[in-house]
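Tokens in:
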């Protein structure tokens, strides 16, 4: 397929190395070593016959199955379109909409680099930890087009390079969300403002709405509540005029974010009012509602909410942050004297440690209970260290 020479070259080189073929061994009787080298670098204009011969030598049969290639091209374009329209927040859902067997066929075709990139998205998720696919794709960096490079740079923490490579609403949004997750809220606001400008020029209301939600989250963490509310109201206004399939989910997310902010600042009734309006209820919702029950003395309701949250989470990983946060509230509800329980301190610090790679806002939310325990234990030096670390925000103990 024309225009795919770079992907083809990457495919041939990778499969040749996997099979421990030298260039001489692969091209013997087909073409010269220098010509194969050009092909692998995405250069030259190899004939159909040479390409077929090389691929067959490597055991690849997908490249010239026309029906497969046309459908694959359509599917891949659909992933890119959805990704740039809706942003990276759901990229783990967007990346591999196919069966594993089909993905392996993509990796045996001219769309090899696209397949690797989608595997990076799927396996990396939002924690942005290196994996075998990012390492493999790094080897082919010079063969990626601008769009592919921007996604790959974003995945590998090179946000400035990503926006320079392919400036658009989605890529600026991705960089802004990364900054937000790391607790760099003022910096994130500047990046997200740029993302919104690009998304508006691109006539992309779905992305504009999501950007306003994240801007609201940043202002919430900075305790600038008037700006927070303005952003959430803008997001709600956009939601009313879009036919986005996830409107209800995002409206619930806004109610949740407001409720979480009020709860963090001790306004329990306002938090309850907002949280009660959530029609889409996920793990974080049960965590915050259970704390509302804890603070209003409704122990049984709180424990019931924890059980519902744990059932929905359905994880066997007892070091998972969401699981530990729910178990922490459960422990307090089951043990009124929790500060005197040695197991509580162990669970609390397990939870705190699990949040090191989580969004900074999660750790900030749990911090009052850490300070409460340290104060009870008279460990004032540790309190001073934590307060210095979070000196830019006001923190109140839970009681």
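Residues out:
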């Amino acid at each position: 397929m024309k225009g795919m020479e770079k992907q083809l070259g990457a495919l041939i080189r990778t499969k040749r190395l996997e099979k421990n073929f030298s260039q001489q061994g692969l091209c013997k009787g087909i073409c010269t070593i220098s010509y194969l080298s050009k092909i692998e670098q995405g250069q030259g204009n190899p004939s159909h016959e040479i390409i077929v011969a090389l691929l067959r030598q490597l055991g690849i049969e997908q490249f010239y199955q026309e029906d497969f290639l046309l459908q694959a091209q359509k599917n891949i374009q659909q992933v890119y379109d959805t990704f740039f329209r809706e942003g990276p927040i759901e990229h783990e859902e967007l990346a591999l909409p196919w069966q594993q067997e089909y993905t392996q066929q993509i990796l045996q075709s001219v769309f090899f680099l696209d397949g690797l990139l989608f595997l990076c998205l799927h396996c990396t998720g939002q924690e942005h930890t290196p994996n075998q696919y990012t390492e493999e794709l790094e080897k082919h960096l010079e063969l990626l087009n601008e769009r592919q490079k921007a996604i790959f740079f974003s995945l590998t923490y090179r946000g400035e390079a990503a926006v320079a490579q392919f400036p658009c609403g989605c890529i600026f949004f991705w960089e802004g969300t990364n900054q937000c997750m790391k607790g760099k809220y003022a910096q994130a606001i500047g990046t997200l403002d740029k993302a919104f400008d690009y998304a508006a020029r691109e006539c992309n209301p779905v992305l504009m709405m999501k950007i306003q939600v994240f801007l609201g989250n940043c202002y919430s963490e900075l305790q600038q509540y008037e700006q927070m509310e303005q952003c959430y109201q803008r997001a709600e206004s956009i939601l009313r005029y879009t036919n986005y399939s996830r409107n209800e989910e995002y409206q619930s997310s806004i109610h949740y974010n407001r409720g979480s902010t009020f709860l963090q600042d001790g306004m329990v009734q306002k938090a309850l009012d907002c949280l009660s309006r959530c029609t889409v209820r996920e793990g974080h919702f049960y965590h915050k509602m259970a704390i509302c029950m804890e603070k209003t003395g409704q122990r049984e309701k709180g424990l019931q909410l924890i059980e519902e949250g744990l059932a929905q989470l359905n994880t066997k990983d007892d070091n998972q942050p969401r699981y530990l946060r729910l178990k922490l509230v459960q422990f307090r509800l089951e043990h009124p004297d929790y500060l005197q329980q040695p197991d509580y301190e162990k669970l609390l610090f397990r939870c705190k440690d699990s949040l090191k790679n989580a969004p900074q806002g999660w750790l900030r939310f749990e911090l009052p209970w850490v300070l409460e325990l340290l104060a009870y234990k008279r460990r004032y030096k540790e309190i001073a260290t934590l307060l210095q670390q979070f000196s830019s925000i006001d923190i109140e103990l839970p009681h």
